[in-house]
Design goal:
It comes from Lysinibacillus xylanilyticus. The chain is mainly alpha-helical. The protein contains 13 helices and 2 strands. The protein folds into 2 domains: 125 residues, no CATH class; 181 residues. Strands 1-2 form a two-stranded antiparallel ribbon.
């Protein structure tokens, strides 16, 4: 397979998109009466998906046809301009910034799916929920087109090594953003042993997740497999989304503003989503002799469910919940990377 390297401009572009994801994650930090209202959960998903899909469109173009040429750089720089518009439009008060968000998204996607441009512009003539219905119907169609045309895409397979590298680099930037933003919230100070201990535990948790993801990526994945790459693409939607949810969970656990039972289900639901999505994505590309067995799945699910039931029976400190997650991810990393 022809070697294709990630360019510095691509990494610069990734930083902008991760900034957008960070803004989307902040939506999950809006707590009312001990709960994250369903409106905020829905807004998080509705903001996250267009960001992810805009990044995927640019990534897939470069994966199949991109070279570090002058006109490709100009194209990517223009995309960064529209990405900035979209980032500036991300807010809990999403309705007020709808038009500028739409312009940013159209600018990112126009050269990839021309027909989608028409669908999006039509939404400007409607108010309230109708325009959102049109917007996300267009996004859904845009996302489903590659799945429907998968047989044709197989004839032009992705460069698997480059695709994993792109998603891996994007993921590690998101890991870094998670760590930095968590430290910004916790703000450990000399003598404040509670925040210092929480910082240490948070760091160990993030590192254990990093260990599991990147050891699998580097040691267990057969990058010579030729496919349409859709398992990597669509699977990473849930990996990246769950990472953002786990990042929000860490901050919410530290702030003690969320109802105990709500945060339990939110935290363990986020971890379950991350576990299932990483397992499915890596399973298809793992070397056959190293693929996990069904009893591994049962073991990991058993550990998660066991911790959840224990915490439902006995109220435990939030930092102990963090320690339980570390135990899970250490076991998950150990058994999937040996």
């Amino acid at each position: 397979m022809e070697e294709k390297k990630v360019t510095w401009l691509e990494l610069f572009y990734d930083l902008l998109i991760v900034a957008a994801i960070s803004t989307a994650t902040h939506v999950l930090l809006h707590v009312e009466k001990g709960y994250i209202h369903s409106d905020y959960l829905l807004k998080f998903v509705l903001i996250f998906i267009p960001i992810w899909w805009a990044w995927v469109g640019q990534t897939m173009f470069i994966n199949r046809y991109g070279e570090d040429l002058f006109h490709h750089r100009i194209f990517l720089i223009l995309q960064m301009f529209f990405a900035l518009i979209m980032i500036a439009s991300l807010s809990v008060d999403f309705d007020s910034y709808y038009r500028s968000f739409l312009i940013g998204y159209i600018g990112l996607r126009a050269l990839v799916v021309i027909q989608y441009l028409v669908v999006q512009l039509c939404s400007l003539f409607f108010d309230s929920w109708i325009r959102y219905l049109i917007l996300y119907t267009g996004i859904l169609v845009d996302i489903l087109i590659p799945i429907i045309g998968r047989k044709r895409l197989v004839n032009v397979p992705t460069n698997t090594a480059h695709l994993f590298e792109r998603f891996g680099l994007f993921t590690i930037i998101l890991f870094g953003e998670t760590l930095v933003s968590t430290l910004a919230v916790i703000q450990p100070k000399q003598g404040d042993w509670n925040s210092i201990l929480f910082t240490i535990v948070s760091f160990v948790l993030i590192i254990s997740m990093w260990w599991q993801y990147f050891d699998n990526l580097e040691k267990k994945v057969n990058k010579s497999i030729k496919t349409a790459g859709q398992m990597i693409i669509y699977g990473h939607l849930f990996i990246l989304m769950s990472l953002s949810m786990i990042a929000a969970s860490i901050r919410l656990l530290f702030m003690h503003e969320v109802n105990y039972y709500f945060i339990l289900f939110f935290v363990f639901g986020s971890v379950l989503l991350y576990f299932l999505s990483t397992s499915i994505v890596f399973h298809q590309y793992r070397y056959k002799k190293q693929r996990l067995k069904i009893y591994h799945l049962g073991l990991f699910l058993g550990i998660l469910v066991g911790f959840l039931i224990l915490n439902l029976i006995i109220s435990v400190p939030n930092i102990l919940i963090m320690v339980e997650l570390i135990v899970f991810f250490v076991i998950y990393a150990k058994l999937t990377t040996v």
